[in-house]
Write a structure and sequence with these properties.
With about 100 residues, the chain is mostly helical. Helices cover about 75% and strands about 0% of the residues. α1 packs antiparallel against α2.
């Protein structure tokens, strides 16, 4: 494997990683901006949450975990697919 290929693969990996991560982190932050008041996002640090706020906070954290899990899985799959396509193209084994 050439040094040029490794550098290109690393560049592709880093760019895709950044773009995917930004996409789902930004979406979560926008959700927090719109609905954070439901779970006391606007309260001072250490303030006690009401039962309702605690309920919505737990729901948000469950949703956040699912979004991050799926997003990270898709990010890994996309990066691996692109790197594999590059390898196939460079080795002449591409299917096109």
């Amino acid at each position: 494997m050439s040094k040029e290929y490794v550098n290109f693969s690393t560049l592709i990996h880093n760019q895709l990683h950044e773009k995917f991560t930004t996409t789902f982190i930004y979406a979560l932050s926008q959700f927090e901006l719109e609905f954070g008041h439901l779970w006391g996002e606007d309260l001072d640090e250490g303030a006690e949450l009401s039962d309702s706020q605690d309920f919505y906070y737990k729901k948000f954290m469950e949703m956040r975990k699912r979004i991050l899990d799926v997003g990270n899985n898709q990010k890994r799959n996309a990066i691996n697919s692109v790197i594999q396509l590059i390898k196939e193209k460079e080795s002449g084994n591409d299917k096109q």
